[in-house]
Amino acid sequence: MTKPFDTINYKRPNLKTFVQTSKKYIANLSQSTTIADALTAIQKMNTLRKTFFTMATICEVRYSIDTRDAFYVGENEFFNNNLPYVEELKSEYFRTLINHTLRPELEKKLGHQIFALADQSLKTFSPEIIPLMQRENNLTTEYMKLMATAEFHFRGRKLNLSTIRAYESSTDRVTRREAMETKWKFYETNYEKIGGIFDNLVKTRTEIARTLGFKNFVELGYARLMRTDYNAADVATFREAVQKNIVPIASEIAKRQQNRIGVDKLCYFDEEFRFASGNPTPKGTPEDIIASAKKMYSELSPQTDAFFTTMLNNNLMDLVAKEGKHTGGYCTFLPNNKTPFIFSNFNGTSGDIDVLTHEAGHAFQMFESRNMPLFEYYYPTFEACEIHSMSMEFFTLPYMNLFFGDDTEKYHFAHLAAALQFIPYGVAVDEFQHIIYENPEFTTEQRCAEWKKIEKKYLPHKNYEGNSFLKKGTLWMRQNHIFNTPFYYIDYTLAQICAFQFWQADVKNHKSAWQKYVRLCKKGGSESFLKLVEIAGLKSPFDAKTIEKTIKHVKKELFSVDDAKF
Ligand code: ZN
């Protein structure tokens, strides 16, 4: 089963066979009068879907590793164009499942969550929207491609959007300013194009929503993310609590940063430069870093040891930045091989270590639930997924000396400060999307004006000194989630509040906290978000008290450190 990634055979699924076979199994399920027959049909459907998505994932990974590879460009297009048909079959399958006469017995066997997911999923699809979904897929690919083509000639080097980031935290203010200006020039040059892609996306998504009977895309966006136990009103309450409890602390942290790095104003090009002595950077080559990660996971627990050894022995990580590679980082899962895959762009910053903790946290969860009986249970909804990844960042904190040496204490401080400062930005991205999809007729200029207003509310310390383009309210254009996965972004902030809680639990009693974490990982996607939070022994982030209490602890830790010494 487990195979080195490069030796896994890719074969384009035969769509006709896939459709015919699916229909046959769905009919079997529909006609089954005994639990045994129904479960057999479900398992067959499960196996078929696993194989299809294993191929789709291999294609996605190989395409993102080299976006210029003509073969996988074509294969990627095949999936973009045909995934809607697969969605259609999934809908038929789910409809059969939830309307089955044996549903109560099936729920007992399979758990309630698959039925909750099926209910949500059915709201998000109808065959009429297939052409619109194809258009949406092509638009997100267009944005992704545009970002991958960004090429900068900076200080004698050829850089892309990932690799230029190393200069954004340069100790030399002129260098980081010019790096930022160079990067933002790319967005400015492509302003019309990016604004146009987004406008098309918003209009397409709105049309999809209206075709499905929604007022606008907001509720559909939530349903697509399979949110079964909270809604936009809960998220609005969450944002309010963030504004009240976190924004003031984030501003204080920015002020401290300004003093620490000795500038009279903290400008946008200073934000990544957190310490006068330079940001904490990992020591050694990518090979050294990977060797340290191996040591870390072997010491953390037998479970993580088994996991990371599998990843290494089977080339299930593509970590270093290369020409033509898609930007960013992600973790995905190959159902038939029962293995995760980690993709990233190492660039010599502490972000490289975050990949080995954050993405590895996702991967560890998938690895722990690799034997789940249902395809839908390999991983939970995104806000719950991010608990695994963000909490792993805290569980691995005691090992950071392996990567940072003398910079370790500085890294701890920086990590915690960044985690907290991220939350106001995260809710800003979320509020922006609510406004955008509630007002789909807005022009790009109006959208930018809205972003500016939101920035004032949640990120009052922002200073775009000398950059008229960013002053227009264009920062959102760099946030690929806004284009690719609408309404996803809030999930990071919800999960961060949960991860902070795991961190506190870990400091108090490591053994008990780790057990709870593994228990959570093993649950995979078999429960809803708030249920998983409960299983993990955590408090709901939608309760304003949770934020207040959790943040108190984080603040205490941050302000007990004399950061002037860094
Ligand atoms: Zn993540």
Overall description:
This protein is mostly helical and 566 residues long. The chain is built from 25 helices and 5 strands. A 3-stranded mixed sheet has the order 3-5-4, with helices on both faces. Strands 1-2 form a two-stranded antiparallel sheet. The protein is globular, with a radius of gyration of 23 Å. The termini are far apart. It binds zinc ion (ZN). Zinc ion binds next to helix 15 and helix 16.
Averaged pLDDT: 95
Cα-based radius of gyration, to the nearest Å: 23 Å
Shape: globular
Distance between the termini: 48 Å
Helical amount among residues, as a percent range? 55-70%
Compute the number of strand runs. 5
* Sheet having the most strands: 3 strands, mixed
Taken in chain order, the helices and strands follow as HHHHHHEEHHHHHHHHEEEHHHHHHHHHHH
How many alpha or pi helices? 25
